[in-house]
Amino acid sequence: MADAAQPSVDDVLAESPELEERIHRTGFRILASATIMFFLGFVFAYFYLRSLNNAHMWRPDGVDPPQGYGAVIVAAFVLSAASFAYAARSARAGRAWVVPAGVSLVLGLAGCVVQAFEYAHIPFGPQSGGYASVFICWTALYVVCVLLTMYRVETIFAAGVRNRRQEDGYEPIGFGSGSYYWTLLAGIGVLAYVILYLV
């Protein structure tokens, strides 16, 4: 009976929900800072190579990404981030949030699929000048970041599905921090769209 009363190793090493939430918040802030610095490199590369325009090869004729694909991709990512932010606010307020989290996951993955379709239909490759190389590298690495973020969205959504009977009072740890990061990343996607498609 004495053994049954002793706490398990997992219970002893378990962190309080408040501490876990603080760890998530700090971790996502560090990740957000690193992400901003990472994509600033592409902004610099874009304007630097454009200003040099060596041998007039910055953006030769025919190096134009399809505008329609770009608009659909950025719209999907922005709507996904907005849906996830709404889900996080609903969870904090004690309202149902699983459906908007699921919508966020579907929209984010749909944006990644459309990006793959765009690659199949662009008339240039990374060797087609400075603009083309920046475009391919920036969008490809951005989609990798989005896919990693979709993993976080999926874990939140799965936690909600598992606990759907107590959904109105259940909020997964790190929900708000994950929403903050996905909103930031979607904002970087808007910046990429403006620079790569409109400037």
Describe the structure.
With 199 residues, the protein is mainly alpha-helical. The chain has a single domain (20-198), classed as Four Helix Bundle (Hemerythrin (Met), subunit A). It contains seven helices and no strands. The longest helix is centred in the first third of the chain and has 36 residues, at 17-52. The termini are far apart.
How is this fold's topology laid out?
Layout: H1 2-5, H2 9-13, H3 17-52, H4 67-92, H5 98-121, H6 130-162, H7 175-198
Helix pairs in contact: 3-6, 3-7, 4-5, 4-7, 5-6, 6-7
Identify the notable features of this structure and list them briefly.
199 residues, mainly alpha, Four Helix Bundle (Hemerythrin (Met), subunit A), elongated
Strand count, sense and barrel status of the largest sheet are: none
Coarse shape: elongated
User: What's the number of extended β-strand segments?
Assistant: 0
Kindly provide the name of the CATH class.
Answer: Mainly Alpha
How many domain units?
1
Contiguous runs where pLDDT drops below 50 for at least 5 residues: none
> What is the CATH topology?
Four Helix Bundle (Hemerythrin (Met), subunit A)
Structural class designation? mainly alpha
Précis, in short:
The chain is mainly α and 199 residues long.
